């Protein structure tokens, strides 16, 4: 029996970015899009261009630079949104406009305040308009799983006649179950007369923890495209996780008789990159990519795995790109070896980016005996999140102990020179953050802070993540160093630079500052 090809539509950069507290910079989105291209997904939903100028610019940059997958942009069912999607997608090698409108009675009555006939007409008109600009047009009936099935079939029939090449059946609120959703997909297949002219797509949310199961049930009943995100991030409880979908189809090929175009060896790396850049931590027991996914705790299991891994491992770590022998480079490695390693890891970087990374690599190699692939990937993620810097950490110094109050001094470079400040605090991190606040001249609202080791070992690289809040927006900064205080202060300054790039210098503080001067 021949395997059926299933298309994967990744929406990490659109629905995934709707994860509470996540806000990605354009450079970070580009890094993720490039990772998705290496993963070989079929389509990348790069964003929602009408939502903001920043979203528009990010979609355009991805459309310009990312080759391979179809680049898709979201648009509500109106001309303005569709035109924004068209313009942002203009540079793409292959593009798709994705337009949507809700179809459930509850959305019609309370959100859209439209009748079913009005929604039908709006959907048809939007698809016809989008078709004038893109060969591929996807239509989503938002809240499809809570819509009247016969009405839904009428909507799909009309949008296909108007030119939709993909019809999406979202379970917007994660309400459906595998059996019910499977039946809905079959119903659509059997009751939309022109369904052979379109691909059926599914988009499942995980509110009841069934997004992956629902997607697989839909696939067994005729869906050919699955929408998903890396690590399952997304609105509320998130979307179906790409790594789980891919490995379910791969591991149970004999059962599903389906395959994707994904390079499974890129799954782990992509998962880590997305977690680092979004700041969304992966739970240790997360299927496929969690830290414990291949860990065997019980003696009986360990014994079994030692004699044959198949006793307790249904897939190998190597399949998802975790290599058991990951030692790569050290202090004596030259630029050539470093570049070669970047290429082997799948990174195609320009000469300037390689030169910048090599400086950080050498700095790290001076402090750390062996550099693992994960260290190199962490440096790449750090680079993606660097902003044009208002403040650059020149130095920091901290004294602390259990008998003394922690004291910190920092020096921050700005375009107008070096600013130096000192502060005490409840512990070294608090002291150094307070010194930074004094140096930048305004108070920072710290929302969260986290530090973890990138790899194991006494000289492991520490990765600090800091979330700060301004005007109801959260900015996530990252810092890397073998010294955890340095990693923390770098992350704090990085978050401040991101905030300043988006919101500008806080006005009241600026006034207060110039009065003081
Ligand atoms: O969940 C949803 O309905 C969506 C649509 C825009 C596809 O994200
Ligand atoms: Zn969604």
The rounded Rg comes to 25 Å
CATH class of the largest domain: Alpha Beta
CATH-defined topology of the largest domain:
TIM Barrel
Total count of strands = 18
Main sheet strand line-up: 2-3-4-5-6-7-8-9
**Helix-strand makeup class:** alpha/beta
User: Helicity range of the residues?
Assistant: 40-55%
Approximately how much beta-strand content do the residues carry? 15-25%
**Continuous helix count:** 18
Give me the CATH architecture of the largest domain, please: Alpha-Beta Barrel
C-alpha termini separation: 78 Å
Shape: globular
Q: Which ligands, by name, code or SMILES, are bound?
A: 3-methyl-2-oxobutanoic acid, zinc ion
Arithmetic mean pLDDT: 92
């Amino acid at each position: 029996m021949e395997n059926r090809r299933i298309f994967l539509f990744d929406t990490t950069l659109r629905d995934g970015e709707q994860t509470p507290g996540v806000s990605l910079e354009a450079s970070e989105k580009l890094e993720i899009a490039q990772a998705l291209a290496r993963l070989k997904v079929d389509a990348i939903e790069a964003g929602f261009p009408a939502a903001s100028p920043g979203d528009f610019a990010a979609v355009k940059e991805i459309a310009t630079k990312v080759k391979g997958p179809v680049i898709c942009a979201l648009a509500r069912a109106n001309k303005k949104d569709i035109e924004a999607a068209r313009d942002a997608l203009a540079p793409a090698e292959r593009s798709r406009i994705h337009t949507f409108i809700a179809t459930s009675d509850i959305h019609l009555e309370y959100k859209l305040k439209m009748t079913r006939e009005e929604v039908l007409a709006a959907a048809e008109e939007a698809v016809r308009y989008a078709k004038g600009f893109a060969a591929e047009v996807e239509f989503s009936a938002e809240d499809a799983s809570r819509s009247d099935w016969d009405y839904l079939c009428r909507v799909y029939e009309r949008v296909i006649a108007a030119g939709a090449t993909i019809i999406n059946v979202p379970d917007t609120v994660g309400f459906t179950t595998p059996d019910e959703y499977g039946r809905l997909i079959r119903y659509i297949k059997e009751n939309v007369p022109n369904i052979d002219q379109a691909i059926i797509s599914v988009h499942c949310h995980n509110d009841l923890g069934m997004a992956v199961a629902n997607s697989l049930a839909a696939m067994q009943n005729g869906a050919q495209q699955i929408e998903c995100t890396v690590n399952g991030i997304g609105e509320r409880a998130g979307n179906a996780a790409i790594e789980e979908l891919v490995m379910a189809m791969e591991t149970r090929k004999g059962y599903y008789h389906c395959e994707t175009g994904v390079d499974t060896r890129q799954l782990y790396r992509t998962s880590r990159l997305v977690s680092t850049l979004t700041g969304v931590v992966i739970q240790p027991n997360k299927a496929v990519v969690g830290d414990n996914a291949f860990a065997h705790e019980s003696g009986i299991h360990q014994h079994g795995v030692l004699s044959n891994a198949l006793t307790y491992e249904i897939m190998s770590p190597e399949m998802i790109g975790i290599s058991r022998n990951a030692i790569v480079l050290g202090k004596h490695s030259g630029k050539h070896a470093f570049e070669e390693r970047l290429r082997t890891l799948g990174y195609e970087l320009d000469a300037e980016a390689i030169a910048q990374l090599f400086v950080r690599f050498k700095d790290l190699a001076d402090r750390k005996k062996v550099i693992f692939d994960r260290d190199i990937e962490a440096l790449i993620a750090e680079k993606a999140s660097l902003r044009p810097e208002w403040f650059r950490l020149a130095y920091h110094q901290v004294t602390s102990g259990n008998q003394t109050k922690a004291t910190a001094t920092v020096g921050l470079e700005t375009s107008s020179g070096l600013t130096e400040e000192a502060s005490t605090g409840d512990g070294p991190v608090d002291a150094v953050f307070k010194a930074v606040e004094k140096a930048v001249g305004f108070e920072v609202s710290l929302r969260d802070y986290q530090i973890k080791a990138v790899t194991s070992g006494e000289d492991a690289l520490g990765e600090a993540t800091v979330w700060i809040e301004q005007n109801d927006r959260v900015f996530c900064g990252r810092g890397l160093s073998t010294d955890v205080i340095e990693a923390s202060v770098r992350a704090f300054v990085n978050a401040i630079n991101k905030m300043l790039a988006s919101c500008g210098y806080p006005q009241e503080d600026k006034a207060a500052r110039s009065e003081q001067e």
